[in-house]
Amino acid sequence: MKPCEKLLLLLFLGAFIPFFSGHSASPQNNSFTVVIDPGHGGKDPGAVGSSSKEKDIVLSVGLKVGKLIEENHPDVKVLYTRNTDRFVELNQRAEIANKSHADLFISIHCNALDRRRTSPQGVETFVLGLHRSKDNLDVAKAENAVIMYEDDYSVKYEGFNPNEPESYIIFEFMANEFLTQSVYLATLVQNHLVNSSKRVNRSVRQAGFLVLREVAMPSILVELGYISNKQEETYMKSASGQNSLASSIYQGFKEYKREYDKKSHVFTGSGTDNRQFDVSQSTVAVGNTREYRVQFLISSRKYNNGASAFKGLDPVDFYTDGGTYKYTYGSTTNQAEIEKILREVRRKFKDAFIVEFEDGKRVK
C-alpha cells in the first residue's frame, strides 16, 4: 500500500472550485488527451440484464462518445482502454491513462441489483472518495469485483478484497488532488444526462473505485442506468438511447473543455499602472468597453452576497452557463487593476482566474 497522509476532505458537492492546472498541457500545443474507459469486456460480462450485457452497452456508448469528441475537437486526442470486446485488467486501464499523460479519464458502466429485488432506475456519476452510504458501497463492490477475473489480484492490489468493507478504509485517507476537477466534470455530465437524456437523477456521488484510484488525472465513473430494470435496459440497448447517453456525456465534456481552454488562456496584458486599487470597492463596468472580472467559484447552487462560500469576498456577481452558477469578484476596464484583484482573490481561492466580458456577455 502506498504511503499517504490522512486528509480531511470537507467537500460540498454543490459548491466547488474547478482547478485546471498542474499536469495539464496548454491548448496552444494541441495536446489535450481524454481516455474513454468502457467497463468490463471479454470474459467479464459485467452486469447482465434479461437480454443484454453491460460490456456491450458501455462499449457502444463509449465509442460514440469518443467519435463525438474527435469530430468536434481536432485538438483533442481520444484513447480507449478497449475498443473491442476484450478483457482489460483494472490496473492496465489506469496504466493506459497515466502513460499517455491524459487530461481526463471517463469510465462508463451500467448499474444493477440482485434480480430478487425490485430494481430502481436512474443515472449517477461517481468520483473517487469514501462512500457515504451503503448504496454507494454496493456499487463500488460490484464494479471492483472485476478483479476476481485477474490472476494474483490480492498481490496486485495490495491485499484489497472487493467484498470486505474494511478494504475500503484506505479511500478515507487518500488525498486526491484532482477531486474538485472530477466533481466539476461529474456535475456537468450528470446535469446533461438528467436534463438532455431525461434520465432519473441519482446525483453525483463519491465511492471507492479501484479503476479511479490509480489514475493521475481528473476522473469520473458514469453509471448509465440499471440494466436490472426492464425499462432502462430497453432504453440502453436501443440505438436512440445509446446516442442520447453518448451525447449527454459529450456535452459535459464539451463544457469542461471550454472552461479548461478559458482557464488556460494566457493573459497577455502589458499594462504598467502602479496605482493602488481598493478591491473592496469594485463596480461593474457598463457600455461597450471590454470588462475584466475574476472568476473564483462554480456551483450548481445560487448564493446570495455574504455567503460563507465566498470567504469574505463582497460584493460578488455571477453569470450562468450550462446550468451552473459562475461567481466573479471585481470589475474593471483596466488590465493592471484586474491583475491586482486576481492576486488578492488568489489568497482565498488559489485557482481564481481572469474572465472578460463585452456588453455583459463573457467572451474569454
Q: What Rg do the Cα atoms give?
A: 22 Å
CATH level 1 class label of the largest domain: Alpha Beta
CATH architecture of the largest domain: 3-Layer(aba) Sandwich
Q: Label the overall shape.
A: elongated
Class computed from helices, strands and strand pairing = alpha/beta
Could you tell me the strand content as a percent range? Answer: 15-25%
Count of distinct strands: 12
Helical stretch tally:
10
Order of helices and strands: EEHEHEEHHHHEHEHHEEEHEE
**Helical content class:** 25-40%
Q: How would you characterize the largest beta sheet?
A: 6 strands, antiparallel
Indicate the mean pLDDT: 75
Distance between termini?
44 Å
Number of spatially distinct domains: 2
Unreliable stretches covering 5 or more consecutive residues: 1-19, 21-30, 131-137, 144-148, 153-160, 166-175, 266-288
CATH topology name of the largest domain, in short, is Aminopeptidase
* Superfamily (CATH H level) name of the largest domain: Zn-dependent exopeptidases
Could you characterize the architecture of this molecule?
The chain has 10 helices and 12 strands. Strands 1, 8, 9, 10, 11 and 12 form a 6-stranded antiparallel β-sheet that branches. The radius of gyration is 22 Å and the shape is elongated. The model is unreliable at 1-19, 21-30, 131-137, 144-148, 153-160, 166-175 and 266-288 (pLDDT under 50). Helices cover 31% and strands 21% of the residues. The chain is an alpha/beta fold and 364 residues long. A hairpin with a 2-residue loop joins β11 (353-358) and β12 (361-362). The chain folds into 2 domains: 15-262, 3-Layer(aba) Sandwich (Aminopeptidase), CATH 3.40.630; 275-362, Sporulation related repeat (Alpha-Beta Plaits, 2-Layer Sandwich). α1 (54-72) packs across α9 and α8 (230-237) packs across α9 (239-264).
